[in-house]
Amino acid sequence: MIYLQLFWSFFQIGLLSFGGGYAALPLIREQVVEQHHWLTMAEFSDLITISQMTPGPIAINSATFVGIQIAGTWGAVVSTLGCVIPSCAVVSLLAFLYYRYRTLSVLQGALYGIRPAVVALIASAGLTLLIQAWWPGGFAWNAPDAVAVVLFAGALLVLRRWKPDPVLVMLGCGVIGGAVYLLLG
Amino acid sequence: MNKRDWKRYGKLFTSTFLLSAFTFGGGYVIVSLMKERFVDKLGWLEKQEMLDLTAIAQSAPGPIAVNAAILLGYRVGGPLGALVAILGTILPPFLILSVVSLFYAAFKTNRIIAAVLRGMQAGVAAVIASVVLDMAGDIVRKRKILPVLLMVIAFALAVLAKKLNVVWILLGCAAAGIASALWSNRRGGDGV
Which of A3, A41, B27, B72 is spaced 20 to 30 Å from A150 by Cα? Predict the structure, then answer.
């Protein structure tokens, strides 16, 4: 039964992918390409390209994409559900422990150490993204993409100065940057 | 359920839906945006709690964005809130991928889409930079050595040791925090 197979495959992907994003890629490939041959390797790399160009977690994107290709809309629904259910269970358990015990001094200490690390992880993700925007072909010791530098500086200035909705800032960059890139050819 | 509750769930849904629909570039981007909206704009939770929830979202399996949405939703509106936030978060990629998978040859080669997405990348980087400036500033201003040190070490590891699973970074920093708490308890100090 194809629905069950899809559900179970993406359940495993959801359960075993720690670290988010690209940590899930090898697992998805294992299930979708190697084990079940739902996609060829070429289709799989198309899927990664599409995931990079569209919003949303790569695991959810692949669940939808593979589900639709294999078993239509309902295939997409069961795959996505399979992918999300393990998260729900584990996260609920952790959240319960957090709210129950967060006044304990051991957990307080742990959180005291973890908070700066989370800031650092967000910063490193931001740096990766910035490098991708400034040097589209990968980092090198040459001048960054001037349009991206100006967009970044302008957006940061606007954000710090007027505190607008960040979604508007991103959309603005998309429209302005998109127009400039198209004009420059 | 009264009218105010409905309004809150509605706001939760539209917020998570919009964030998810415009979030390119992985889990930490959406976490940054959630902080902007739920902490700064709506005032639904504290900055510290947001960092804790981010750590939990990171430590659990599955997409960070989905995990963070579950936590936020639950915190704001209980089990129903969690459900609403999950739906808001997974619907945009679900809908977009459904459409794209039908036209994906055309989509991949469209010049306008590529140009707009390239422009947005710089904007997303700016949003994250702004959030990091806020949060790192908070940590530095408290003038304690350990958190600043942990932040620098964690950043260096995350950037330089790409193969290292970030769960180890979080565990290491947790251990350092616990050690410092026990140490200051023993000396009867001011705690952490």
Answer: B27
pTM of the model: 0.77
Is B69 in the A-facing interface, judged by CB distances under 8 Å? no
Q: How far apart are CA B44 and CA A171, in angstroms?
A: 25
Residues A30 and A92 in one domain: yes
- Predicted-complex ipTM score: 0.77
Q: What pLDDT, on a 0 to 100 scale, did the predictor assign at position B71?
A: 93
Q: How many helices (H) and strands (E) does chain A have?
A: 7, 0
Q: Are residues A169 and A91 in the same domain?
A: no
Residues 6+ apart with CB under 8 A from A150: none
Residues A15 and A72 in one domain: yes
| Cβ separation B63–A127 shorter than 8 A | no
**Is residue A52 domain-resident?**
yes
Query: Are both A90 and A61 inside the same structural domain?
Result: yes
Q: Tell me whether residues B125 and A95 touch, CB distance under 8 A.
A: no
Confidence at residue A157, expressed as pLDDT on a 0 to 100 scale: 96
Q: Please tell me if residue B99 touches chain A, with a CB cutoff of 8 Å.
A: no
- For residue B102, name the pLDDT band (cuts at 50, 70, 90): confident
What does the pLDDT look like over B112-124, one tens digit per residue? 888 888 888 888 8
pLDDT digit string, tens, across residues A60-115:
988 999 999 899 999 999 999 999 999 889 998 888 888 888 888 888 898 899 88
Chain A contacts of B104, Cβ < 8 Å?
46, 50
B158 contact residues in A (CB cutoff 8 A): 120-121, 123-124
- Partner residue facing A129 (CB), from B25, B62, B169: B25
Interchain pair B129, A177: CB under 8 A: no
Q: Are A133 and A89 members of one domain?
A: no
Using alpha carbons, list the distances in angstroms from residue B11 to B39, B76, B77, B81, B149: 14, 11, 11, 11, 38
Of A119, A122, A127, the CB nearest to B139: A119
Residues in contact with B9: Cβ distance below 8 Å, sequence separation at least 6, in sequence order: B77, B80, B81, B84
Of A56, A74, A101, which residue is a domain's last? Answer: A101
Enumerate the domain spans of chain B. Answer: 3-109
In this structure, is residue A148 part of a structural domain? Answer: yes
Given an 8 Å threshold on Cβ–Cβ distance, is A87 in contact with B56?
A: no
Q: How many domains does chain A have?
A: 2
What pLDDT, on a 0 to 100 scale, did the predictor assign at position B118? 84
Cβ count within 10 A of residue B14: 11
